[in-house]
TrEMBL record:
Any matching Pfam family: DUF4277
Coiled coil: 302-336
InterPro entries, alphabetized: DUF4277, IS1634_transpos
NCBIfam families assigned: transpos_IS1634 (NF033559)
Domain DUF4277, residue spans: 8-114
Keywords: Coiled coil
Annotated protein name in UniProt: Similar to Transposase
PANTHER family for this protein: PTHR34614, TRANSPOSASE IS4-LIKE DOMAIN-CONTAINING PROTEIN
Length: 391
């Protein structure tokens, strides 16, 4: 037998780096400590989790029963350990490990891994960012109605999540989905806290509870950053003892009035150099102390000259397009006959509803007569005004 016949080629690709990071963090050890090791097992639960991570970062999508095929052409002993064979990673073994992880508590295990990452990599935790996304799923996922109503408001549920239709962020509103809430660090977007929720879950209903739960489990002084879904009276009551930054939605009457009436302060000479260093020359702002939802807070009203200029240019373009559209409509209705003046007014009202930036304000009607000497009305003069409230 020649040496060439004895050579076997196995791939590592980028997965060697993935396996090395998993080992450096100590994920296998953490899982084995939590779930235990049975001496009768050919492969430990921690190693199974490592294989799942490697498979997930291998950019493949296969059914679970084909999981072991992924490692057929890989140097599996280099990735997972000596004497590990692909056949050990069957769907029965993976399913049992997943059940054990769920029973133990995925959040508890995830947080312990996170704390180890923070310690080893020295993550900057001055700020933490919360947001959510959704993942569509195939299948019907039928459940009884009474079970769907149980514990809707709780952040930690004993029951599994409900796969339901909801607001789809991955543009598949035709399919049912689940929601993922994720808190990441400022430094490198390292995930710090993860939670899976029902498909029809609302960010406004859970964001406050997510932050409170996060602070209970991870003890460090971090400023929480979130979008406007966090800002509501109920959430503010929940997070009043936390540090947080969010955007105040313009649907709040007090915010709308403040933006319309406040004058942003001029930039002081001593601040101009600082703003130049931060590349903020085109921004001005003013702080306002506001009490909302019973919580005293600081609102920052910011004016961007570049954004204002861009918005005005966009508005002028929209006005020009809508004016052309309205002129076309006016020509059509000027040739139309109406049985009585009120019918003409109804027609005009319907047209104005369709116009976003313009409004037909003044109309002149004349009486006309058909060959049968029946009286009708026509619009002969219409004046467009640009004073309609911009929505």
């Amino acid at each position: 037998m020649s040496y060439l016949e004895e050579i076997q080629v196995k791939n590592l690709d980028h997965l060697g780096i993935v396996a090395g990071l998993i080992d450096e963090i100590g994920i296998v050890k953490i899982i084995n400590n939590k779930l235990g090791i049975d001496v009768r097992e050919k492969i430990s639960a921690g190693t199974v989790v490592k294989s799942i991570l490697i498979n997930g970062l291998g950019f493949v999508s296969r059914p679970l029963y084909l999981f072991s095929q992924f490692f057929q052409d890989k140097a599996i002993e280099k990735l997972l350990g000596e004497r590990i064979k692909p056949d050990y990673l069957n769907d029965d073994k993976i399913g049992r490990v997943m059940d054990e992880l769920y029973k133990y508590g995925l959040n508890d295990i995830f947080i312990e891994v996170v704390l180890e990452v923070i310690k080893k990599i020295k993550i900057d935790l001055k700020y933490s960012h919360l947001d959510s996304t959704s993942f569509h799923l195939d299948g019907e996922y039928k459940r009884e109605e009474d079970k769907e109503k149980q514990e809707e408001e709780k952040i930690i549920k004993e029951r599994p999540i409900l796969i339901k239709k909801g607001y789809s962020r991955d543009h598949r509103p035709d399919l049912k989905q689940c929601v993922l809430d994720l808190i990441t660090s400022q430094d490198g977007d390292i995930p710090l806290f993860v939670r899976v929720g029902d498909g029809n879950e609302s960010d406004k209903a859970v964001f406050g509870k997510v932050l409170v739960e996060f602070k209970k489990q991870i003890k460090f002084d971090s400023i929480m950053v979130c979008d406007s879904a966090l800002y509501g009276q109920e959430n503010l009551q929940l997070i009043q003892h936390l540090k947080w930054i969010t955007r105040v939605p313009m649907t709040i009457k007090k915010a709308k009035e403040l933006v319309q009436n406040i004058e942003v302060e001029e930039v002081k000479d001593e601040d101009k150099e600082k703003r130049s260093d931060l590349n903020l020359e085109s921004y001005t702002w003013k702080e306002e102390i506001v009490t909302y939802g019973g919580i005293k807070q600081t609102w920052l009203i910011v004016l961007s000259e570049k954004r204002q200029k861009s918005d005005l240019e966009k508005l002028e373009k929209q006005l020009s397009q809508e004016e052309k559209k309205s002129q076309k409509v006016l020509k059509e209705i000027q040739s139309e006959e109406f049985e009585h003046p009120q019918a003409a007014r109804y027609k005009l009202k319907a047209i104005n509803k369709k116009l976003r930036l313009l409004e037909i304000k003044e109309v002149e009607l004349i009486e006309t007569y058909s060959k049968k000497k029946e009286k009708s009305y026509k619009m002969i003069s219409l004046i467009i005004k640009k004073d309609k409230e911009i929505r």
